[in-house]
Give the backbone structure.
Amino acid sequence: MSEIKKRLLSIIESPNHHTDTKLLKICQLLDQEIPYFNWTGFYFKNGDKEELILGPYVGAETDHKIIPFGKGICGQVAVSNETFVVPDVHEQDNYLSCSIHTKAEIVVPIIKNGENIGQIDIDSHSLNPFTKEDREMLEWLCEEIAHIL
């Protein structure tokens, strides 16, 4: 297991922190350790509504505190339940711009008991920065996070 995965797991398994604190610490760790992760945050299903609500995050302030299902990359993942890697956000018709600096995005769903309960959303100021290893690590992370939610 990679060093970053070990550190993420220690945050997830920490008995001393509330879930929101763990999620924020995960965002902080990813932000510090991966230079092209320029905005890292969580969105969660907002009760019974067909929308996502912003959870803990690290990065620039965003106006997108609520995202309807189907809108933007996050809203599409809420419907598809599949990881969505966008090498160049300017090539996406259904992209919600959070920052003029964002050039790429990856969104990975958090599935618990077969239901999409949230997702991790990462923006990058670089074109096409996300690797196969990034995707695999984030998918692993979301599986682990599902156990504490």
